[in-house]
Amino acid sequence: MKASFHKEVQDLYQKLIDAWNRRDAQGMSEQFADHGVQIGFDGSKLIGQEEILSHLKPIFENHPTAPFVTKVKDIRPLGTDAAILYAIAGMIPPGKSDIEPTVNAHQTLVAIKKDGAWCIELFQNTPAQFHGRPELIEEMTEELRQLLL
């Protein structure tokens, strides 16, 4: 059961990341619970599928967003129908082939199982700037670069 639980939560996270990388606002918003919350890199707080969709749609239509490179670091159950996932993420800017370290992030996802299906209750994308500790930025970037090989 534990392996299945982890796979289901990881699959939910991957659907979210894949939708971002496809620039698919609808696909991203559909992964959230009715009142799910998304907190973006800039601190924007969006509540519910409609608000998330209306925020993301113009971003994808008007900006060349960078795709994510991610690595799930931990998935922990929070009871039987909830879990927390922690991942690290980097981005490859359009026209580039390498991760841009200044936009590395920690990503946290809280998932709930409702009516037999997993959905996102909270997704937070927090800058990993490590003020005054450049070695940690490089360490995270190198860990993500390994996924590009």
Automatic annotation (TrEMBL):
DUF4440 domain location is 10-119
Q: Which InterPro entries match?
A: DUF4440, NTF2-like_dom_sf, Steroid_delta5-4_isomerase
Chain ranges passing through the membrane = none
Q: What is this protein called?
A: Uncharacterized protein (TIGR02246 family)
